[in-house]
UniProtKB/TrEMBL annotation:
Pathway membership: Lipid metabolism; fatty acid beta-oxidation
Catalytic activity: 3-hydroxybutanoyl-CoA = (2E)-butenoyl-CoA + H2O; a (3S)-3-hydroxyacyl-CoA = a (2E)-enoyl-CoA + H2O; (3S)-3-hydroxybutanoyl-CoA = (2E)-butenoyl-CoA + H2O; 3-hydroxyisovaleryl-CoA = 3-methylbut-2-enoyl-CoA + H2O
A cellular-component GO term for this protein: mitochondrion
One Pfam family this sequence matches: ECH_1
InterPro entries given in the database record: ClpP/crotonase-like_dom_sf (IPR029045), Enoyl-CoA_hydra/iso (IPR001753)
Protein name per the record: Enoyl-CoA hydratase, mitochondrial
Name of the gene: Echs1
Length: 149
């Protein structure tokens, strides 16, 4: 396994030439909600994959039921090192950190932080604006409404 043993992730190299890093969020009881432990493991797994010269691409995935649920009712502003991954990042922010997003027809994306009295973290406002445009991003951030895939 790349980066050691994980509690919240399934990590392997796959593909015909074993050059694709596959990282699967594995916290099914919480719909893969991003907790501090999962984010720390994810950073460790990504660093291991990025430093492996055999790995040419990394796929980050969730389960059949959920990619990543929101972090929970009490966001924490704690930053893990200089990598920009924060513990209160939700699935939408995590997905937007990727170069390409493949989503199922029933997938929904949202920035519900306003419903908790905070704003999206982990670059959520900047990346969302680039992905969906200013008007839709403002609507999502200011109302907490979700959009479909």
């Amino acid at each position: 396994r790349a980066g050691g043993t994980f509690q919240y992730l399934l990590v392997q190299k796959t593909g015909a030439q074993q050059n694709v890093g596959l990282i699967q969020l594995n916290r099914p009881q919480a719909l893969n909600a991003l907790c501090e432990g999962l984010m720390a493991e994810l950073r460790r797994a990504l660093e291991a994959m990025e430093s492996d010269p055999q790995v040419g691409a990394i796929v980050l995935t969730g389960s059949q039921k959920a990619f990543a649920g929101r972090a929970g009712p009490r966001p924490s502003p704690k930053v893990f090192g200089g990598g920009g991954l924060v513990s209160h990042a939700g699935g939408c922010e995590l997905a937007m950190m990727c170069d390409i997003i493949y989503a199922g027809e029933k997938a929904q994306f949202g920035q519900p932080e306003i419903l908790l009295g905070t704003i999206p973290g982990a670059g959520g406002t900047q990346r969302l604006t680039r992905a969906v445009g200013k008007s839709l991003a403002m609507e999502m951030v200011l109302t907490g409404d979700r959009i479909s895939a």
